[in-house]
């Protein structure tokens, strides 16, 4: 009988935080005080005056919003931003979560923390991120997305989001270019210092089992020091941050890689959709089907269902050291070094069932794109109930050193020179690799019933007659995977920019740049496919299998307490059981100890005694770009002041790519339909690419009144292909057929996405810190990248026996039909045994000869259907942005709200099969921020919402869509200034404990259901 269990609750702390938010309202009537935000210098409003960005002393929420408003108002083109509330105090503790407050910006979350950004429907890989105007490398896998969670917010002074393209902006962002700015000592004369510490209590950690649970409270400490000499000639600043966070999550999932297989009763000519075992109407078993899909309906069945409880431990270190020297008034040199390190350790325990697409009873959602609501599958022979674990770690490290010289040559001519070298690296940080799986199973699953009709799937496990509970005595280790991923990226960049001012408001900006970007991605994979059991149940004491209940780890989730939910499973210690498995494997003489360890040799060298399936890959891509630009701008005092900026940028990029891949050396025909590809050693494959673009831009703004502005912008921009698409490695797998094989490769000759962008906006600045704006944008994007299949013969020395001399002899002298492969095979083995390439080994139960027939020189070269990315689509994306920011006089209250609507023709048709192309990341979004700031109190509540969006195409069972469902999150913070120097604060992230869910062609087709829980921070900050 299942025990009664009470899950921890977080509502008490949430209520306390809500109560704290109410406190400033009470204080308003009893303690009137002037605003704590500094008075902002008024912008000149006279017609025809050229605007320059004001230097403002920013403190507090209102000051931050005012500074961001002024950035938008004075910028060329459409620019939004966020400014620090004070030195060392950014509005959000996470940069991505701060950016999502900007209209058109949405974020992806990882374990409940903001990580990457989408801008105006354009995904993270096609938004360019700069640090102080310098392009930063990324080492986040095969993409170009910047990982914002690696950077602490405390050292950031501002973030600028350039939504329209400009000639002076480096190429690479078609959604936006995001410039992260750090504090400079000469910008803040004098000596400044502050230090803060927070205690982080992650509510999700409380729901973890003891073996995964971390510390109840973890630290987040930061400090910043800045000083200048009395004459203002020299300055130095140092900032540092150390964060440790221990969190948990619980998930239900149909795993990517083992996703939903699509079927249709009338398969496509390519064979896609074939193979369904679902009884047709009127056939035996059809009486057990409710709402069966029609003959032309696409319907999907799951390959697996699993649940997991996960622990993540993060340890992040950030620091920046900056020196500035101004030997004369018109020359400033800046030398800076930025460092970040993020260590992430992950542990998990899971339970899962593998399904065979043969439901005994089922019910279905309506229409094409259907999936099961009820799935009942039984097995004549008991199948496995899988329980797994994983323990892995990665370390991400970023380093950047740069030198900038700014020289005001004359009153009218300025020159800026900038050089930096930056690296980003992601490495395994565990002897067991960057990711792994150690699977166990008991073979006592007689069947299972799965209810997909609600958000949380309910699994009922059926045990054999006479067995009432899962049994540790029948448990043993089955398969295992130990994988290492290593990513290294390096940028060396030089930029020279100049500005020459003519008479009046006319000026010319110009510049040249060279960027050398190298990216390397390597992996090793050690896999034992012993899914039926690696050794024996006797190799594992019953005591290592600890009974647990998965429902305990979902807090308040409907369905997790359903009495039908069979949530019993076995947890086990990764280190202990891995060692037992390794010992048993070696003792049984089945392989070496290295078969249960990650491989840190990326060369593919053989491992003596190993019987594991070992694969390696090593991709190296180098982009060398050269660019120059010119831009002319002027302000015309016509009936209305008109500001014009017109420019063009030239970009030339050369791509060189190489990849280490296994070298195929032969084809062995081992059974009627199996042609095995034989490998020996490795080889490098080298390809290259080249492209050049002229990118014009035009920005026009009209000052309708002193407080109203109308803008129009046109510009062209490019977004470079992902590194994974440029990887030239060619993979053709281990098996072919008589008519050829299949495989996949990258394409270094890909062109970048090219976007023609048009923007129109209206802005009304009706108060010191208040404004309203409406904007329309449209992007015509060419060169979208999609996969295409072509017939190729990439290995001229790889010969197949199909159609060769022996094959033709069997058809001629042997009298076999050209399509009768059993006859052909038998003739060759019986007639040519012992001759080159033919080895007969015996006779099978049917009396047919067994053995191997190998391809020989002179036989046909094996051809493959190769899938590779190509540029082949174009479409448009357009949308609207609405912004309002309002401060209610001297009351201390204010709000900021925005809503973004995005639309595109590149959507996925869930009701059909075949190749489709759709834009990922496309969704509407909204933000509402309410704040109070008066006297000693400061409070803010921020709600962010993002509508449903397509996140991926492909789940391991085909090009199937995966959607992230609409998600909203409420964050709050309250601070109290005890003195002018000492501030106490409390913050809450996801205080209402929202969950995230992904689905497929319809909402009931679950891919994942994740609960990450709320997070609270209690802090103190002291300004010296």
Please provide a written account of the structure.
With 1024 residues, the protein is mostly beta strands. The chain is built from seven helices and 46 strands. The radius of gyration is 32 Å and the shape is globular. The chain starts with 10 loop residues before the first helix and ends with a strand.
Structural class designation: mainly beta
- Biggest beta sheet summary: 37 strands, mixed
How many β-strand stretches?
Answer: 46
Radius of gyration: 32 Å
Helix content: under 10%
Q: What coarse outline follows from CA principal-axis ratios? A: globular
Task: Describe the secondary structure blueprint for this structure.
Elements (H helix, E strand, L loop, with lengths): L10 H20 L29 H15 L4 E5 L11 H5 L5 E6 L2 E7 L8 E4 L2 E2 L20 E7 L14 E6 L9 E11 L15 E11 L5 E20 L6 E4 L25 E2 L8 E4 L1 E25 L2 E24 L6 E4 L5 E39 L4 E16 L6 E17 L6 E5 L12 E27 L5 E22 L17 E4 L18 E4 L2 H14 L25 E25 L3 E31 L2 E30 L4 E12 L3 H4 L3 E2 L3 E2 L4 E5 L7 E12 L6 E22 L12 H8 L8 H12 L5 E6 L5 E6 L9 E24 L5 E12 L20 E10 L2 E10 L2 E5 L7 E4 L2 E11 L4 E8 L5 E5 L6 E6 L3 E9 L1
Parallel strand pairs: 4-7, 12-16, 13-17, 31-36
Antiparallel strand pairs: 1-6, 2-3, 4-5, 6-7, 8-9, 8-46, 9-10, 10-14, 10-45, 11-13, 14-15, 15-17, 16-17, 17-18, 17-19, 18-21, 19-20, 19-21, 21-22, 22-25, 23-24, 25-26, 26-27, 26-35, 27-28, 27-30, 28-32, 29-31, 32-33, 33-36, 34-35, 36-37, 37-38, 38-39, 39-42, 40-41, 41-44, 42-43, 43-46, 44-45
Helix pairs in contact: 6-7
């Amino acid at each position: 009988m299942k025990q009664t269990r009470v899950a921890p609750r977080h509502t008490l702390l949430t209520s306390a935080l809500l109560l704290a938010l109410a406190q400033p309202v009470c204080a308003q009537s009893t303690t009137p005080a002037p605003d704590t935000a500094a008075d902002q210098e008024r912008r000149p409003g006279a017609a025809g005056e050229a605007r320059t960005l004001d230097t403002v002393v920013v403190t507090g929420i209102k000051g931050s919003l005012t500074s961001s408003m002024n950035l938008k108002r004075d910028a060329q083109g459409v620019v939004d931003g966020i400014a620090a509330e004070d030195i060392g105090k950014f509005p959000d503790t996470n940069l991505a979560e701060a950016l999502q407050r900007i209209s058109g910006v949405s974020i992806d979350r990882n374990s409940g923390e903001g990580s990457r950004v989408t801008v105006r429907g354009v995904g993270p890989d096609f938004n360019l991120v700069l640090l102080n105007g310098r392009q930063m490398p990324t080492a986040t896998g095969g993409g170009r997305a910047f990982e914002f969670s690696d950077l602490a917010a405390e050292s950031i002074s501002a973030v600028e989001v350039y939504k329209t393209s400009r000639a002076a902006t480096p190429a690479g962002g078609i959604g936006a270019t995001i410039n992260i700015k750090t504090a400079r000592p000469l910008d803040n004369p004098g000596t400044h210092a502050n230090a803060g510490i927070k205690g982080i209590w992650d509510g999700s950690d409380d729901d973890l089992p003891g073996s995964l649970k971390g510390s109840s409270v973890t630290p987040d400490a930061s400090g910043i020091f800045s000083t200048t000499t009395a004459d203002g000639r020299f300055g130095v600043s140092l900032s540092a941050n150390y964060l440790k966070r221990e969190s948990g999550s619980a998930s239900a999932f149909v795993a990517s890689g083992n996703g939903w297989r699509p079927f249709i009763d009338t398969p496509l000519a390519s064979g896609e959709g074939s193979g369904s075992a679902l009884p047709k109407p009127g056939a035996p078993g059809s009486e057990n089907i409710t709402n069966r899909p029609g003959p032309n309906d696409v319907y999907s069945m799951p390959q697996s269902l699993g649940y997991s409880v996960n622990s993540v431990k993060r340890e992040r270190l950030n620091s920046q050291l900056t020196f500035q020297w101004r030997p004369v008034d018109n020359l400033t040199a800046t030398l800076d070094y930025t460092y970040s390190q993020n260590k992430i350790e992950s542990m998990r325990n899971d339970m899962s069932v593998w399904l065979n697409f043969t439901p005994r009873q089922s019910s279905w959602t309506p229409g094409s794109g259907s999936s099961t609501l009820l799935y009942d599958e039984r097995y004549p022979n008991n199948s496995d109930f899988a329980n797994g674990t994983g323990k892995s770690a990665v370390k991400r490290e970023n380093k950047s050193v740069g030198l900038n010289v700014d020289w005001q040559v004359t009153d009218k001519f300025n020159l800026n020179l900038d050089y930096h070298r930056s690296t980003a690296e992601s490495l395994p940080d565990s002897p067991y690799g960057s990711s792994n799986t150690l699977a166990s199973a008991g073979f006592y699953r007689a069947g299972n019933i799965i209810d997909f009709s609600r958000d949380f799937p309910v699994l009922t496990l059926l045990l054999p007659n006479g067995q009432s509970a899962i049994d540790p005595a029948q448990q043993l280790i089955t398969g295992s995977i130990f994988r290492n991923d290593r990513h290294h990226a390096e940028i060396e960049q030089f930029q020279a920019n100049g500005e020459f001012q003519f008479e009046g408001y006319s000026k010319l900006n110009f510049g040249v740049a060279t960027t050398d970007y190298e990216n390397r991605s390597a992996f090793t994979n050690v896999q034992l496919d012993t899914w039926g059991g690696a050794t024996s149940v006797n190799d594992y004491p019953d005591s290592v299998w600890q009974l647990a209940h998965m429902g305990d780890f979902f807090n308040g989730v409907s369905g997790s307490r359903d009495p039908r939910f069979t949530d019993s499973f076995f947890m086990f210690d990764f280190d202990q059981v891995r060692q037992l498995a390794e010992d048993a494997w070696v003792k049984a003489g089945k392989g070496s100890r290295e078969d249960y360890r990650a491989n840190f040799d990326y060369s593919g060298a053989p491992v003596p005694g190993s019987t594991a399936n070992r694969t390696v890959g090593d991709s190296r891509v180098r982009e060398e770009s050269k660019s120059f630009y010119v831009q002319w701008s002027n302000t015309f005092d016509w009936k209305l002041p008109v500001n014009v900026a017109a420019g063009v940028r030239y970009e030339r990029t050369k791509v060189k790519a190489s990849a280490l891949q296994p070298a195929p050396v032969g084809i062995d025909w081992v059974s009627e339909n199996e042609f095995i590809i034989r490998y020996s050693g490795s080889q490098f494959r080298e390809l290259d690419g080249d492209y050049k673009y002229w990118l014009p831009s035009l920005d026009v703004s009209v000052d309708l009144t002193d407080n109203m502005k109308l803008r129009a912008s046109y510009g062209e921009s490019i977004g470079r292909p992902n590194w994974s698409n440029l990887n030239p490695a060619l993979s053709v797998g281990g098996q072919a057929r008589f008519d050829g094989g299949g495989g996949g490769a990258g394409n270094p000759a890909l062109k970048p996405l090219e976007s023609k962008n048009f923007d129109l906006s209206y802005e009304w600045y009706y108060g010191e810190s208040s404004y309203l704006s409406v904007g329309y944008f449209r992007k015509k994007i060419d060169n979208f990248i999609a996969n295409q299949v072509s017939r190729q013969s990439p290995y001229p020395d790889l010969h197949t026996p199909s159609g060769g001399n022996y094959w033709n002899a069997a058809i001629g002298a042997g009298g076999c039909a050209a399509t009768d492969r059993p006859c052909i095979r038998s003739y060759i083995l019986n007639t040519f045994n012992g001759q080159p390439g033919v080895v007969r080994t015996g006779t099978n139960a049917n009396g047919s000869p067994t053995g191997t027939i190998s391809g020989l020189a002179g036989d046909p070269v094996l051809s493959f259907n190769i899938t590779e990315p190509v540029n082949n689509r174009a479409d448009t994306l357009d949308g609207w942005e609405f912004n309002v920011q309002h401060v209610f006089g001297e009351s201390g209250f204010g709000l900021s709200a925005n809503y973004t609507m995005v639309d595109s023709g590149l959507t996925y048709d869930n009701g059909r099969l075949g190749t489709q192309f759709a834009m990922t990341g496309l969704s509407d979004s909204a933000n509402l921020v309410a704040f109070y700031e008066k006297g000693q109190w400061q409070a803010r509540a921020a709600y962010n919402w993002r509508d449903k969006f397509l996140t991926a195409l492909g789940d391991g069972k085909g090009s199937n869509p995966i959607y992230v469902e609409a998600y909203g999150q409420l964050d709050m913070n309250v601070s109290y200034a005890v003195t002018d120097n000492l501030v106490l604060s409390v913050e809450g992230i996801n205080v209402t404990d929202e969950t995230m869910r992904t689905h497929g062609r319809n909402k009931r087709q679950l891919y994942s259901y994740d609960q990450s829980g709320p997070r609270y921070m209690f802090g103190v900050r002291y300004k010296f």
